[in-house]
Specification:
This protein folds into 2 domains: 60 residues; 132 residues, Rossmann fold, CATH 3.40.50.10610. Strand 4 and strand 5 form a beta hairpin. The protein is an alpha/beta fold and 195 residues long.
């Protein structure tokens, strides 16, 4: 008889446990969903934070425009002036430290203002810079032996820095060795401007 009561008690315990299991499962599922939702919220906040940080980093880059370097004599120095302008723009972009205005946008603004040359543009640099939405403008001239560059602040219109690069390399005795290429000139300009 003792065994019958024990078996009966065991079956009652089993039945009550079975009745409670669905509730425990539901509670367990709810807590799992709650944890999953918390993780999703944390992940979304992290993604938003890193996205905002990335956008801030992009906006914190210095915005510059490179206006064509003007040759002293277009027939003699026009090619090197264009090459230095193009290489300087490429080097600025590849450094990943600057946001550089697109060449076509610069040309469009210059046409709208009725400017014919980089010389005209350097006089109205602040106005061009504001229309382009840049902080600084890089412009200059190229002659037989030198490339002169000016780094102009758009807000004030002041020349912040001026750099002169010798196009030809001479040895200690003053004997000509070689001419610098446009890439070497552009790198020297950037080194001098941003050291």
């Amino acid at each position: 008889m003792y065994q019958k009561i024990t078996n009966k008690q065991a079956s009652i315990d089993f039945i009550s446990a079975m009745e409670q299991k669905p509730f425990e499962k539901r509670a367990s599922l709810k807590s799992q969903k709650s944890r999953r939702n918390k993780y999703c919220v944390v992940i979304m906040v992290c993604l938003f934070f890193f996205g905002a940080l990335s956008a801030y980093a992009q906006d914190s880059k210095l915005r510059v425009a490179v206006i064509d370097i003007q040759p002293a004599d277009y027939r003699l120095h026009g090619t090197i002036a264009k090459e230095v302008t193009g290489t300087l723009t490429t080097e600025l972009v590849n450094s990943n430290k600057f946001r550089v205005a697109e060449r076509s946008r610069i040309d469009q603004i210059m046409r709208e203002l009725g400017l014919q040359s980089a010389q005209d543009a350097s006089v109205r640099a602040a106005e061009i810079g504001k229309l382009l939405g840049v902080h600084k403008i890089i412009t200059g001239e190229c002659s037989y032996s030198i490339v002169s560059i000016r780094f102009i602040d758009v807000e004030s219109g002041d020349i912040e820095k001026a750099v002169t690069i010798q196009r030809y390399v001479y040895n200690k005795r003053g004997k000509f060795q070689r001419e610098l290429g446009s890439q070497e000139i552009a790198k020297k300009i950037l080194d001098e401007l941003f050291k």
